[in-house]
Amino acid sequence: MPRNAATSARGPAAIGPYSHAVWSGSELFCSGQTPIDPATGALITGDVAAQTHRVFDNLQAVLEDNGLSLDDVVKCNVYLIDMADFAAMNGAYASRFTAPYPARTTVAVAGLPLGARVEIELLARRAT
Predict the structure, then answer these.
(1) Which residues pair with 120 in a beta bridge?
(2) DSSP secondary structure letter of residue 86
């Protein structure tokens, strides 16, 4: 099955050889987003809560530009450079979804691109 790339003109430009997202049938696999401001191409300043909100702004742009919303998200993978940031990330995360919440995995990693504190990837599904 060929890859069907999905993009967002409102999201930050990819910083590597990847698509913002890829369609597979009715499922949209979104690449991990870091807290890059699409207007400047630079990582935003601020704590992990502010960075989490910027990540979701970027992901939401990809979803919306492809006919979906955060209500269509079924799975998120969250990467933190420090699990001490979990509570702040979780608070920002919780403000973006309503019950029933998507499935989620959160892990700590040694580092993220451009010095980001958080990166989030997700899977969304178009209603059939």
Answers:
(1) 33, 78
(2) H
The tokens for 9 are 């003109």
pLDDT tens sequence across 30-64: 999 999 999 999 999 999 999 999 999 999 999 99
Taking the CB of residue 105, how many other CB atoms lie within 10 A of it? 10
pTM metric for this prediction: 0.96
Identify any residues that bridge with 75 across adjacent strands, giving them in sequence order: 103, 123
Domains of the chain in start order, with CATH, are: 4-125 (3.30.1330.40)
Instruction: Estimate the crossing angle of helix 86-94 against helix 48-64, to 10 degrees.
Output: 40
Q: How many alpha carbons lie under 13 Å from residue 117 in its C-beta half-sphere? A: 18
User: What type of residue is 76?
Assistant: C
With contact defined as beta carbons under 8 Å apart, do 36 and 57 qualify?
no
Q: Give 125's contacts (C-beta < 8 A, 6+ positions apart).
A: 26, 27, 28, 72, 74
Per residue in 80-94, pLDDT tens? 999 999 999 999 999
Residue 97 to residue 3: CA distance in whole angstroms: 28
Pull the structure tokens for residue 68. 């979906």
